[in-house]
Amino acid sequence: RSWYTPRSSLLALFRQYFQYGYWKVRVIQKHKIPASVRHLIPGLFVLSLLVGPLLGLLWRPLLLLWLFMVVAYVVADLVASALAAFRHGWDLFLSLMVIFPIYHIAYGYGFLRGILDFVLLRRQPSSDSVRLTRTGSEAAAPSRR
Questions:
Q1: Which of 63-77, 94-108, 115-129 has the lowest mean pLDDT?
Q2: What is the model's pLDDT at position 136?
Q3: By C-alpha distance, which of 102, 101, 129 is closest to 113?
Q4: Is the dihedral of CA 75, 78, 82, 85 positive or negative?
Q5: For residue 41, with 0-12 CB atoms within 10 Å meaning exposed, 13-18 middle and 19 or more buried, which class applies?
Q6: pTM for the whole thing?
Q7: CA distances (Å), 81 to each of 16, 17, 73, 100, 101, in order?
């Protein structure tokens, strides 16, 4: 039996997915097996979002490639949000347009921070990475029916 309790805010959701990505690096270290591609893509996406424009200043085609990637992501977000809203209610559309990028960017940023902390700098986790993202009623298990 499992359950999921949605976070109370978009910031809490960001923190949750940041931790998922951050601690995935530790799991990979513990089990000494590489992550599947789906665990690596968000980190590569965030890295390319940050580095792409800088490298694009040095070589113009990279800036165009970066712009294409951003536009393609926005279109994919729009399509995925529309498909989910079509199935579950159009009132969710705008929320989903924000939530999907939060999932990807927060996880990717967490994964990159995990690589920086655990692999490159070999330091202990930061305090914000250890603190639970669910609080109060979010931390309680649902009642059995």
A1: 115-129
A2: 55
A3: 129
A4: positive
A5: middle
A6: 0.84
A7: 21, 19, 12, 8, 11
